[in-house]
Structure formats: C-alpha cells, structure tokens
C-alpha cells in the first residue's frame, strides 16, 4: 500500500471514492510529487456537504492548505516552506481534525495547529463522495499521489485509476527521489510501483546494495571456481581449438568484464587469477612489475581500506577503473589474445 499511487495528467482529472465517517474526528495523509507550475491553486483532495466540507490543496508553490467548515464558518490552516514544492520530489501531507484542535503537517518539518472554538458546532457531517484531484471548481492537481489514507485506511488509487480517463495507475520517476538509497555504485531501476537497486556491477547485495558479500582470506588461502562448461572440463587433453569449438554459442572470447572490491594491508597480493588450458591468463595483482602491467593508481591501495576495481577488455582495448579514477590503455603486445 505504500506505493499505491496514481498519476493525474490533466487539470480536470480526478478520482472519486465513497464518503467516510469523520463527525468528531478524522485524519488524512498522503504523499504527492509534482513539477507543474502553480496556477490559482491545485486541489488534491476534497469532500463536501452542502454548507460544510474539508479540502487539502497546494495554494502556492510554497504553501499547503487544509480547510474545513463544521457550520461555524470556514477554517483554514496553512504551512509555508522556504523552497517550492513543485520540485518533482516526494512530500508528505497529514491533516487531522477533532473536537479539540486541527493539525496540518508537511514533511514532518512544517506544522500548524489551530484550537477548536469553545462554542458552536463540532460535528462534521459529510455526505458527498471523496474527490482526489479536480473538485469544487478548482484547478486539479497535476502530478502523482500515493499512499492516500483516510482514518488509517489506504485507498486503492491504482485500481480506480485503471478505469478513470485522465488518470493512470502508478507513478514514474521514482529514481529522481530515491536513487541516493542505492549504495556502493548500485543503479536505480524504475518499476511500475516503485524502484529497485541493481547491484550486478557492485561487490554488494541486498535491496540497497549495502550488504557485503565478501570473505576473509588468510595468507596462502584461495577460493577456486571451475569456469569451463560441464563436459569440457572432464578431458585434460583438449587443445585450444577443441575448447573453443565446445564452448556455448553465447560465449564471447573477445571481451571480459570483471568487478570486485577488496581491502588488504599486504603487498604484493594476488587478487584474481583466471587461466585456461592454453597459455591465456588474466591476473590482477598489487605491486606487480611484469612486462605488461597497468599502473592504475599512484596511491597505496594496500592501506586496509576498501577499493573497487572494474576491468573491461574488448579485443585489444583494456579499461581499468578504480572507485575514483579511470585509466584507459591499449594493449600493444602482438601476442595478446
């Protein structure tokens, strides 16, 4: 229900739901996001009776208002923000009214409280439907609303939006607001009703690419994987041509992609080594002075701190990337395969 959302695409778009009971107390909360320019006030939710009602709307780019009338005349609460709210970021609005007071809160930062009058009417009698979007002759809301709750009950915006012209279920642009939560180089991926973090190019896992999936190696220890397809590794006499002929069709011998993170206080250190039954091999080593070595960083990487390495080879082009620097070089050895 947290991501149950609807997008309002025209100024006249709205959703409607049955009314709710809020005679002595009622509360409403929702998130909204918009980049539309301000024009005379954008109504977001509204429910009325003939002479009294309640309404929440954006009265200006920096103002959210909550108004109601229980028979004693209209009451309006306003919260002001230092920066415009049509910034394409999510903002949370909550409003509550009871016999003692009315409260309007925005983003858990800005708040206004108004005490109820000591005399007069106190019961809020609502008969009309609840309108989300355009209502009461006001210009409708352009943007996205999600997690709309009335008296603690989440309304199904997506289901109603599926059958309502001018309104679409779900929201787009989640990564605009939440990409920062994908850690360690994880990529934010837009989804129909939210977002996810793609950790494939990182050395981390979990919903936010923050779970370390590494291991601790004592000196002289290693983990070995057999990358040769099943059925080929059983024979030790196969030459290079036989191996290539038996590789899967999708295999690509002209490129490699390698990504990992490490931290160590010792050098020289062999980090990764991959070889075949031929003379081909690839090694990633700290402080190694071979004829074909790439010095990717002048800093000391054996400082006990985490470092991320990305290596990409396409034919004779090699790209090596550290967390903060990129070095590209072209292989010039004629015997490199």
UniProtKB/TrEMBL annotation:
One Pfam family per UniProt: Laminin_G_2
Q: Could you tell me which cysteines form disulfide bridges?
A: 144-171
Does the entry feature the keyword Electron transport, yes or no?
Answer: no
* UniProt subcellular location: Membrane
Supply the PROSITE patterns for this chain: EGF_3, LAM_G_DOMAIN
Keyword tags:
Disulfide bond, EGF-like domain, Membrane, Transmembrane, Transmembrane helix
Domain (EGF-like) spans 172-210
Instruction: Specify the protein name.
Output: Laminin G domain-containing protein
């Amino acid at each position: 229900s947290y991501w149950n959302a609807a997008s309002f695409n025209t100024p006249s778009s709205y959703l409607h739901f049955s009314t709710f009971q809020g005679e002595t107390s009622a509360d409403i909360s929702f998130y909204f996001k918009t980049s539309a320019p301000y024009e005379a006030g954008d109504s977001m939710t509204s429910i009325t009776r003939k002479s009294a009602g309640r309404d929440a709307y954006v009265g200006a780019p920096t103002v959210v208002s909550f108004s109601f009338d229980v028979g004693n005349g209209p009451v309006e609460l306003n919260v002001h923000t230092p920066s415009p709210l049509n910034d394409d970021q999510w903002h949370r609005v909550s409003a509550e009214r009871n016999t003692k007071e009315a409260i309007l809160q925005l983003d858990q930062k800005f708040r206004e409280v108004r005490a109820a009058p000591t005399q007069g009417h106190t019961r809020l009698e609502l008969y009309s439907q609840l309108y989300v979007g355009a209502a009461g002759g006001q210009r409708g809301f352009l943007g996205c609303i999600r997690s709309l709750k009335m008296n603690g009950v989440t309304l199904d915006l997506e289901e109603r939006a599926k059958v309502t012209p001018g309104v679409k279920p779900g929201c787009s642009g989640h990564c605009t607001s939440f990409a920062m939560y994908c850690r360690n180089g994880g990529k934010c991926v837009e989804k129909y009703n939210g977002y996810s973090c793609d950790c494939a190019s990182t050395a981390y896992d979990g919903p936010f690419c923050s779970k370390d999936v590494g291991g601790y190696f004592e000196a002289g220890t290693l983990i070995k994987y057999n990358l040769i397809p099943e059925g080929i590794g059983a024979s030790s006499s196969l030459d290079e041509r036989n191996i290539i002929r038996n590789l899967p069709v999708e295999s690509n011998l002209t490129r490699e992609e390698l990504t990992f993170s490490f931290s160590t206080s010792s050098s020289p250190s062999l980090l990764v080594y991959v070889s075949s039954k031929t003379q081909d091999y690839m090694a990633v080593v700290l402080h190694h002075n071979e004829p074909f070595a790439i010095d990717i960083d002048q800093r000391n990487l054996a400082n006990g701190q985490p470092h991320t390495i990305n290596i990409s080879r396409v034919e004779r082009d090699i790209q090596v990337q550290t967390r903060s620097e990129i070095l590209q070089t072209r292989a010039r050895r004629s015997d490199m395969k």
